[in-house]
Amino acid sequence: MRRLLKKRSRKAGLPPGTPVHIGERRSETTELRLVHYEDGALERRQIAAVEEALPYLARPGITWLHAVGAHDAERLKRLEQLGLHPLVIEDILNTDQRTKFEDYGEYAYLVLKMLSDGTEDAIEIEQISIVLGKNYVVSVEEGPSGAFASVEALIDKDRARVRQSGADYLAYLLLDRVVDNYFIVLERLGERIDALQDELVSGPGPQTLRLLHHLRRETLVLRRSVWPLREVIGGLERERSALIRPETAVYLRDVYDHTIHVVDTIETFREVLSGMLELYMSSSTNRLNEVIKVLTVIATVFIPPTFIASVYGMNFRHMPELDSPWGYPVTWLAMLGLGAGMLAYFRKKRWL
Amino acid sequence: MRRLLKKRSRKAGLPPGTPVHIGERRSETTELRLVHYEDGALERRQIAAVEEALPYLARPGITWLHAVGAHDAERLKRLEQLGLHPLVIEDILNTDQRTKFEDYGEYAYLVLKMLSDGTEDAIEIEQISIVLGKNYVVSVEEGPSGAFASVEALIDKDRARVRQSGADYLAYLLLDRVVDNYFIVLERLGERIDALQDELVSGPGPQTLRLLHHLRRETLVLRRSVWPLREVIGGLERERSALIRPETAVYLRDVYDHTIHVVDTIETFREVLSGMLELYMSSSTNRLNEVIKVLTVIATVFIPPTFIASVYGMNFRHMPELDSPWGYPVTWLAMLGLGAGMLAYFRKKRWL
Amino acid sequence: MRRLLKKRSRKAGLPPGTPVHIGERRSETTELRLVHYEDGALERRQIAAVEEALPYLARPGITWLHAVGAHDAERLKRLEQLGLHPLVIEDILNTDQRTKFEDYGEYAYLVLKMLSDGTEDAIEIEQISIVLGKNYVVSVEEGPSGAFASVEALIDKDRARVRQSGADYLAYLLLDRVVDNYFIVLERLGERIDALQDELVSGPGPQTLRLLHHLRRETLVLRRSVWPLREVIGGLERERSALIRPETAVYLRDVYDHTIHVVDTIETFREVLSGMLELYMSSSTNRLNEVIKVLTVIATVFIPPTFIASVYGMNFRHMPELDSPWGYPVTWLAMLGLGAGMLAYFRKKRWL
Amino acid sequence: MRRLLKKRSRKAGLPPGTPVHIGERRSETTELRLVHYEDGALERRQIAAVEEALPYLARPGITWLHAVGAHDAERLKRLEQLGLHPLVIEDILNTDQRTKFEDYGEYAYLVLKMLSDGTEDAIEIEQISIVLGKNYVVSVEEGPSGAFASVEALIDKDRARVRQSGADYLAYLLLDRVVDNYFIVLERLGERIDALQDELVSGPGPQTLRLLHHLRRETLVLRRSVWPLREVIGGLERERSALIRPETAVYLRDVYDHTIHVVDTIETFREVLSGMLELYMSSSTNRLNEVIKVLTVIATVFIPPTFIASVYGMNFRHMPELDSPWGYPVTWLAMLGLGAGMLAYFRKKRWL
Amino acid sequence: MRRLLKKRSRKAGLPPGTPVHIGERRSETTELRLVHYEDGALERRQIAAVEEALPYLARPGITWLHAVGAHDAERLKRLEQLGLHPLVIEDILNTDQRTKFEDYGEYAYLVLKMLSDGTEDAIEIEQISIVLGKNYVVSVEEGPSGAFASVEALIDKDRARVRQSGADYLAYLLLDRVVDNYFIVLERLGERIDALQDELVSGPGPQTLRLLHHLRRETLVLRRSVWPLREVIGGLERERSALIRPETAVYLRDVYDHTIHVVDTIETFREVLSGMLELYMSSSTNRLNEVIKVLTVIATVFIPPTFIASVYGMNFRHMPELDSPWGYPVTWLAMLGLGAGMLAYFRKKRWL
Fold first, then answer.
1. What is the DSSP string of A288-336?
2. Which CATH number applies to C9-282: 3.60.10.10, 3.40.50.2300, 3.30.460.20, 1.25.10.10?
3. A15 part of contact set with chain E, CB < 8 Å
4. Where in chain E is the domain with CATH 1.20.58.340?
5. What is the ipTM of this complex?
6. pLDDT tens-place string over residues A207-217
7. Would you tell me which residues 40-59 of chain E have a C-beta closer than 8 angstroms to some C-beta of chain A?
8. What is the value of pTM for the model shown?
């Protein structure tokens, strides 16, 4: 099961802005991919160090520097050469960040969580850092998720909107991919909830409760990842950063609506799961009721006659009933009558 | 049972603004109805393509273009010729939208949910898109619900208010119809809750719990559909769009009040249903208590005397009581006394 | 039991502003009472139609037109002659309104709920509409409640404050009466909750749970009626309408405080009732525990010895114990010892 | 037990501003104490009527008029001579007020609740009214609580801060005393909660649940009294009244912090008590589980062997086992084996 | 267990601003450490009284006065010589403060809680007071926690950022250390919750519930300490104090993000613990169900046959079955058939 908190303690006591990686290491190496494009031209290469990107920034057009792997403090520290504040570098390396947006004037820093379906029905969470400058975008992801392949594909097309737009549109595309991924994760989660719901109605087994609990915890994790994004994009839309041009703002509003839709859906999941837990508990209590009624019926029907039979199993010498020829059949009648009478009485009193 | 989320995943990775239909197909074809009216004149026709509507827009008067069927991406894409943003076209086709209002300056886009009672006691949800321009309204619904027939009837009347008013009043009428439908759905839901309440008081059966759960989930779905409309219309009223004239604003306020009334009622339903679940659970526990008391009464009355009878059913050679002529009647007395005494004792201790 | 929603469906599809009565009919006829007063003069009469009131409005002084009965669409529709918007007339007739205040510039419209103790311990809800103009007040109530008799009595007194004040003070007086009524209803509800609390402590009976549930639902209804009044009067106080003079504002603040007090008290009732339900449930579980312990004590004490007795009731030919003269007393000792030992063991383990 | 609401109904129908006492009478007479002080001078006397205070107000220095007893409508009505609005007088007499602050320009009116530990572990609530004028303070308490004795003692000291400060500082001192009292009440309540917590852990008795419920209700009452004070003092601090000088504002901020601290603590108490109730309920269910397991163990071990013994207690003529010399010991083995086997089986299945 | 509230009552009735220590005494003596630094110079000494610090304040550079021990009212009262308001001194001594920030213009006062893992799995809470002046920082902690040793170490380094920055950066460093400590405490708490979660899944023991309750209460305490810090730092960031320079503001935003992250994590812990309690309760109920089913199976299988055996154990003279050679085997068949039949019937009815 996913641990609740990442190890942050190794950073305690270090001066602010010290670049230290926090979190698991999700890729072997830190790969740096550079894409430079203008209206007519496109260049794409793998680079070894951040320094190689600097000449591109001086040229017209948009530069996109994408790093896969967030653990290599040495390499990522060089991002300072783009003018980034040490606290930004620190945050890129610390993968236990809360989703946030920070405008530093010359550039803006956005950190958010990408979700994907992992193995064993657990949702994988990966941290994405996006730095948006005037004419460049730096993005850092923890491992090779391939989530942004479709963005690269878009840039490839000569007449795509992104080729005519600024760095802000590119950043929007990355953001949009992340939010689109939320829908995919939600879709699968929704399917699992629906399946559990069906199971609950048709007849819950011993694993139902555990699965219900597991899904609730997944929803909680989801919510914790997505909820702050709502404020972040909402704030982005309201207090317009100078880095975001008006024609991109329409797209931001769209991704904001998607985020609210995601948040809403998560809340609905939570309520549905709560309702299902209550239904499960109520059904459980009902079944208990039924079983206890069985016990009571048996006790009602058999224990009193057994008492009578025991009485006439006693070995007293002077038991006049024993000698009577009617003793046996009358006792049978008494026993049957007693059982039936009690059943009838309890029925009438609506106890059964 | 209604699935929790529509399939959005087929859209993942496509560039923003790609028109793709999401959701079920609710009508065979996409029908386009055009209504053009001025103070004195009225024209009404079925058109084959959006292009046929363009000449009407150039003429004075109001043009209403109503599309039934939201799945035909090819046809609806042509709405771009009215100057709509690709994101608007995308949203019209995606029937998994959250209720929202977007002001694009030249026109405004409102998407909301229409509810109606479906078969099998489930509430049907249909998406309505309304585009309000200076002198036109475009509305798109998913299937032939007939909800706007009364609006067409109003336009037919020569001296109706709508004939003297602008496109904003027409859009208001459509909105008003949708909200009126909410009341009808609520009314039926309320009746079902009241009936369940009666059933709960008179004596709940095994299906009561399931029905209770079902109604709660319906209420949840309802709330999810209606809740955002509250903010949307509230925002509409506050930050007046230039497309809405002051004389129409009074009507918007009215429909806003209705929406709040709907939201309030849904909240009340939720609380009533929660209270009913609690009552159900408490009654259930009470019944369990009663049944277990029956068990205890029986055990109290019969088990100890049975023990005594068993004792004198033993076959020991030397059991002096067995030979005594008083043995049998005294044993009877002892058994009766023991049962009665225990009952009395537990009564006194208030255990029964 | 009160139904959750009034029939609104008969209005669906009608053009906005159509005057249709919604709700029950609470009085036979619609009675119109007119009171006209100036500093020195007072005139009071029953009128047959709204038109008769028009001359009074042209004269100096304040005119109060009070209608008892909200079902007579024909008659009340004539209020349009005072310049009221059709939507206001529609709202006066629709007794399923949510409490609201609307400022139309020339006049303001306030609709709220009056509560009173009805028969069968249910709270009666009646809708009150108040229209405040420059020099007139129109008030409409559903039935002859007599709630405003004390206001008429006040006007009767020559030197009362109301005679020196404007129409706004008269409207305030009506509002104040309605809010005062809330306290009376709350007082009775509080007494019933206190009585139930006492019953809960002294020993709950089978009707306790039902009464608890009933009171919770009453509180819910109350809350739904009063809650919006809080915002309404609060808003009234903040964004001063031109119709309300500063010297009346102090009184409005007072009635606002009362409303908050009512709302607070309702919330307290809700929490008290929730606490009582929890106490009831916990006590119930405790009693169940006690009863089951009785069962266990009996089983512990009697079932094992009964087994031993049964053993020596077997009819095997070769049972050496049976022939021993010590067999019987030793068996008794064994049986007593077994029962006592088990009891002691369970006691020690704190299972009993 | 404290009743939930005071009798307000006797006021219904009276014109606004009618001085009527609502609440219990807490002191025999209404005592009026007057303190007048300047930097160098101090005068203190008991007065018979409000009129005697008027000359002091005309002199330089600060006048403090303190009334003990809020039931004497006749006497307190004379406060009008200080220029108080009739609604203020009405509110002073009505001891069922919600905490509030009202600025009337010339003077301000603050009403709040003083708490103290009463007899029988119930918290006593008393209403304090404070009127702050330019150079005077009027305070009214319901009974002789002695809460303000320390303020009088402070004034006695020639060089105390209060002697150099204005009426606002005196009002602050009174307010501060009331809030200080909250801490004392909270302290005792906290001790009782801690004691109950210990009792819960060491072993709850039958009175635990009742005490838990009682403490929750006390906390609810507390919260209802203190909560509004938070907004009141917060508002006081924000929108500075002209009656409060900047140097006093620092002290108000201090008392505001205390109030928030009180509110926070009450919320913590509420959560702690909720957690304790849940713990109590869970422990209760656990104990039930244990007891039922005892029942099951006994039934498992003894009922099947008893059945076997009963079989061989039958009196059929042809029962070959009875004549076998091995019959008896084999039956014993069978009975022991059956009991042990079932126990083992259930253990293995983890049912026990 | 930690008591809920500290003894504040000894302060009741004292004039505001009286320096009285409230809380436990956590160190033997009050130690005063003075650090004075400029870009090139650094001086560090232990001082005996606040007065010794005054000359340093007159010199250029930053002075940091750190007091360990908050109980010595005499000594700490002398802080007044730095121009601190008596209320600030009072608050430093009262260790039962709520986290708050107060701007006094010349200086600002921040009080917050430092958390650390204490013995016996309980979180230790210590109060930290920070006074930020133009060129000095005064910090007071209750005991020798050593939490700020790393800050001293930073100052030691000649080229550290802090040596080039103002007093505000030093104050930030102290604040940052406190918030970093929260993460360490959270990390350990998270580990304990995870361990409990594992225990809950693998099989809860009797101590699970108590531990669950303990962790919930710890989380509650944590939340109470940290929650107000969120507003405090948030407010600090928004309404910039003149004491905080723009270049430090970036760092404050960083520590604000950390605080929000802490608050979020605590909320998540709360929800996780609630979910675990619910899972525990549901599993408990399920186990009860299982055990009761065992009881029912046994009763079903053995009680009815036992009744039959008892019947033929009766000693009536005229029992024809007893003499029949088929009596015994037929009875066996009947008994087996009865048990099996009932089992089958209940299975079919899904009662078992």
1. HHHHHHHHHHHHHHHHHHHHHHHHTT---S--HHHHSTTHHHHHHHHHH
2. 3.30.460.20
3. yes
4. 288-348
5. 0.80
6. 888 889 889 98
7. none
8. 0.84
